[in-house]
User: What shape does this take?
Amino acid sequence: MGRALGEMEQLILFALVELGDEAYGAAVGRAIEARTGRDVSPGAIYTALDRMETRGLVASWVGEPTPERGGRRRKHYRVTPEGAVELHRSVRVIQDMSEGLLATVEALAGGDGT
Amino acid sequence: MPAAERLLAGLLIRGPGADFVVGDLAEGWHHDRSGLGARRARRRLRRRILASARAWWAPGAWRARRRAARGGSGRPDGRAVVRQGGDGMGGWTGDARYAVRTLIRRPVLALGVVLTLGLGVGATTAIYSVVDTVLLRPLDYEDAGRLVAVGTTFPGREWSAEADGLMHLAGTSYLNFVEFEGARAFEALGGLESAGVLMPDQGNGPELVTAARVTEGFFRTLRVSPALGRLFHPEEYVQGEDAGPVLLSHGAWTRRFGADPGVLGRTLGSAGGGGVIVGVLPPGFETPEVVAAHTPEFWMPLQGGHPRYASRGRRSLILIGRLADGATVNDARAEMTALADRLAADHPDGNVYPDGSHFGAGVNGLLEETVGPSARMLVLFLGAAGLLLLIAVLNATTLLTARALDRSTELGVRMALGAGSARVVRLLLAESVVLSVAGGALGALVGYAGVEAFVRYGQASLPRMDEVAVDARVLAVTLAVALASGIAAGLLPALRVRRGTLAGLHARGGREAGTRMRNALVTLQLAVAVLLLSGAGVLFHSFVALRSADPGFQPAGLMSFQMGVKRPGAPEGEETWQAWDRILEEVRATPGVTAAAAASNVPFQSPSWAPRVLLPGEPEDTRRDGVAGYVVTPGYLDVLGIPLRQGRDFTRTDGPDGPWVAWVNEAWVREHHPTDTEVLGSTLRMVDEASQEWREIQVVGVVGDVVQSRAEEGARPAVYLPYTQADWPLVQPLMAVARPPEVMAPEIRRSVARFSGMVPVQALMSLEDRIRATRTSPRFHAVLLGTFAAVALLLASAGLYASLAHAVGRRRRELGIRMALGARRQGLRGMVMLQAARTAGLGIVLGLGGALLLNRTLRGYLFEVQPDDPVALTGAAAVLAVVALAAAYLPARRATSVDPAEVLRAE
Assistant: This one.
């Protein structure tokens, strides 16, 4: 369905999988940062989530406000079955294609794998 | 989240779902703060707000968001879903987007409205910033509302002529101050006396550094604590020691001592030696402007036991007080008046005039005293800016009305298809809101630039200029003004739609009503422009009169400076006049100086001596105020080119041992010898400053009047004494120079250094510069109002042009048919021009009427020109007429370029 997932979308979907019911913008950002070291802005996260929501890949519901958010509500997300299928497919494509080639890629890049 | 970032995030990230993003930002910051520390967390927050905003407004992002915002798509446990968005606001943003798109399609109109609003809002913002700071913001001291200025008042002149409800305050003697200190209305009272500390030559000649001596209550009144070290101990205000304690201003500490914290305990290194540094005042501390124009660099305790404070006539202390809890300015005034009455009874010396009237004591709020007479001018400027804004709004209304007329077909179709009138009104208003936001942004920029220019040119004319800045409060006002203006401009056309006249608009009658309204709007704009032009014209005329006023002497090619004659190492027994001679010798020997003389004061400088003079036969208790006293050398009249009307110049024989002689000026003769009684040879009596005894002086000459302090004030009666018969320790040499002042200045300094390297040369400048400095304020007023008037003229004529061009455009068909029926081109052109002339004429009449009413507020700022000055009024009318006809010419030509054949084919 639709076009292939972008890298950002993949990262977010994985984060949703990891976080389960506790997945909302800031938590997603922290999860991505914890695993990849990347600082992704909430604006970018929501933009990607909105886009995926219109494609039916994620579903959302609004949670409770908390004081540390200045009394603002959280918007929680979960991966829909369609989203899971799409994520799986896009990762599989990369896996299948990269099978046995990563060492060569690293060599071409001139690094020692770090 | 910190308020600034919250505001930023709120501004940048908006629309459905924005709350979630901002919430995340807040939470992230909360999280970071414990991990990274407050500063880094805040920096990161700012970075993330900007990054979020970029992603938020990326192409396609908002479309996806709107679809997603229809609500949550399902909670895992199947409970109800909270819906977001979808209310009226969504419709508004849709309208705004539509408005932006339609406006972009007609960029000239959009640009016109934005420029117009931007200029009007910008001018208002700039002036409001100034007014806000100068008049409304409290002074920068703790609990500044209770600070007051306290001073001596003169009998018969207790109240200020320039500002309502303000007392006219002068300095106070130390001994009187001590009595005032006990007043119950004050929690604290302090006095400051200006002083100078001479710093030795560091390559640019000796420097006289501004310093102050203060009484014990001064720092307590202002609630100042030192940044370093300590203030003075109570006993230091009593003992007189040569190496007394000194406090440094923060500026002096940084500039002169490299902000060295080890400075405490060191001596100042002044030319007189002495001065142990005991502390440094805090960085933001500045003396109130009424106390000293510039914050003194060195501070010393005022030791009241010093003989110089023994006289009650030496009113050298400027006082400030802090009102006690519950006391008002009026309470303080009442108490001070009673104190002054008692002082006059107990200590008549120095407190009572010869005629029996006595000095009083007065109190003003410190802010009022600081702002005083400038308040009226500032309010006037704000009024002028408001008029400009009015023109801008009228102009924008004209443009938007024209546009609504053009769109009547489209809007009619919309309504026919079932759009409610409310919906159409919203559509039109959305456009004005979009335009006013853009206009507000431009206005903020114009405002910033305007404030900068205002502060640069207004510095010399207005108080508190160094505090003026555009801040969040002003920007909020700007935005509000812009929105209100834009909506006001859009309201008129929108309401017409609402009233249902829209369908009618399309018909001929409606169109005529629209045209009438547009003409009224343009007429009003032109009227306001005439009003501003005439105001500016009156000020300009007054300024020109001031410039061309005869100063009574020839200032071209003259320079002067000021210096003291007392110096270390002066010859034993040297008389003051001998020191004058030595200085003049050095000055005359300077290459490029062609002639020189000296005086105690030069023209365009308030005379510093008001001698007590009696006419023949007058009793000694006669009171005569405001005589200007001058001490001059022979040659003074020649160098300045002042005419000697009668009698003779001073000569060598008018020496210290000869009979005492004087000149008087023409103002003296007019006042005291109106009936041609013989002036020359008459004998005056005058108090000798040195011995305080009466002496007889014979009038040997009558000299022409010269401007004494500023051209606005007529010459006061003046008496001139030869320098050999008066002991005046400050000399002001006057030189005719053959080369430009900037070339002469270093030469003159070199020469004077041969007289003494220890005495600073002050106020070395050309007389023309000195005169120019006295005209700074009138010029500033005229230029500022002139700028407003020019912009107003531009906007109003643009409005006239746009209106006529639009009318011609709409009447193409009619014009084409007229031409096809044989109307002559000239006739058609004349028809358009006639309409313009009618509009402009009515505008001029209304504007002049307004000017006759409102220009009266300028009285008090005018020199030899009346508020209803016919030159300025006819000038304003003429300028407007010419510009209006020029603006009408192009549309008039276009009217005749209509090709009848083409028009008829299009039918």
User: Anything to note?
Assistant: The longest strand of chain B covers residues 186-199.
